[in-house]
Write the structure tokens for this entry.
Amino acid sequence: MIDALAERLPNALVSEKAETMSPRLVYLIVYGQNINAGTTNLSGAVRTAKQIMKDNQSVPIAFVGSRIQALSKQALIQEPIIDFGITNESAYALWNTLSLDTLDTQSLSNIKGIVCRDEVGAVSVREAINTYDK
């Protein structure tokens, strides 16, 4: 885990640290002091994701945060660097995602609680996870 804000890391160092970890997934948590800060902080997270993608092009990039949860499809359409986003019950959605053998569009199509692209790039919001039935 890298806390870029706490460590005051520039994007290049975040990318360098991430690369040394050989991640299966880069998961950016984009929140702020209030609900609107998730939108404001999204631009910085996108810059970080672009640096990571430039340096390590094979790793999928996922976002979670207020902007992704509120405007899921719009966020992915506007920011093609985001491979998928967590839309609800992030702990369950992340757990289910990391349980997959591969993080490709076909595998992600069966995960609830995310927004992602299909094989042709169309963005869709998957069914929400209902934890009340458990």
Summary: The two ends are 30 Å apart (CA to CA). The mean pLDDT is 88. Residues 4-133 form a domain with the Rossmann fold fold (CATH 3.40.50).
